[in-house]
Design brief:
By secondary structure, the chain is α+β, with helices and mostly antiparallel strands. The protein folds into two domains: 56 residues, no CATH class; 135 residues, no CATH class. A six-stranded antiparallel β-sheet has the order 10-11-12-13-9-14, covered by helices on one side. A five-stranded mixed β-sheet has the order 1-8-7-4-3, with no helix packed on it. The chain has a three-stranded antiparallel β-sheet with strand order 2-5-6, with no helix packed on it. Strand 7 and strand 8 form a beta hairpin. The longest helix is centred in the C-terminal third of the chain and has 19 residues. The termini are far apart.
């Protein structure tokens, strides 16, 4: 009879490293496990996780990792220069409250003695909810891609037939261009994202290429 004992398995080859939230699928021939999606650690606790955009395979006989794809997709991390978190969740709540009156009472601050700062106080001015709603509408010809209800804080547009994906986190937005676009278009996309985030947060932002 088996047990719940866990023992390490030594592997070799080109592995994805520390990864979580991924999908593990058995290959069609049943000889390996394919790893897709999820987020990768970058070997430093001060650096944010990045999306895994490639496919990796672990041979179940030889225990050797193989990288099946190596996508050269342009990726940027747009974040506050001061390292503080963003206020997108609060802006989303404020937008829902503004557009849905029945939610205003439910989203009202608790009536207690704790001096909860308002969103306006946190930002140093009233939130620009109209700009927030258009934060992923860059000044280049594009079309919106319908949202996937199973994903959270993921937004997509299509530019010149190429999908541009924005993934929000509490401390940054990661932008991935899933294909090839002219360098000047990519630069405009990144610049627009930096300017928009800085305006919404009333704080300087920067774009770091991943």
């Amino acid at each position: 009879m088996g047990s719940f004992e866990i023992t390490p398995v030594e592997t070799s080859g080109n592995s994805p490293g520390w990864i979580h939230g991924h999908a593990a699928l058995l290959s069609p021939d049943g000889r390996s496990v394919w790893i897709e999606g999820g987020e990768l650690g970058r070997g430093n606790p001060d650096r944010s996780l990045i999306e895994n955009i490639d496919v990796w395979a672990l041979d179940l006989g030889a225990w050797v990792w193989t990288r099946l794809t190596e996508r050269k997709w342009p990726r940027f991390e747009v974040r506050r220069q001061d390292g503080n978190r963003n206020h997108f969740w609060e802006m989303q709540m404020a937008a829902w409250s503004r557009d849905t009156p029945s939610l205003r009472e439910a989203l009202a601050p608790p009536a207690d003695d704790i001096p909860w700062p308002t969103l306006e106080e946190q930002l140093g001015g009233p939130p620009d909810l109209d700009r927030y709603a258009c934060r992923y509408q860059p000044p280049v010809p594009h079309e919106a891609v319908p949202a996937n209800e199973e994903e959270y804080k993921v937004h997509r547009i299509r530019v010149e037939g190429v999908v541009v994906r924005y993934v929000e986190d509490m401390s940054q937005v990661q932008m991935t261009v899933e294909g090839e676009l002219p360098a000047e278009v990519i630069e405009r996309l990144a610049h627009h994202l930096v300017e928009t985030m800085a305006a919404l947060e009333r704080s300087p932002f920067e774009a770091v290429r991943l």
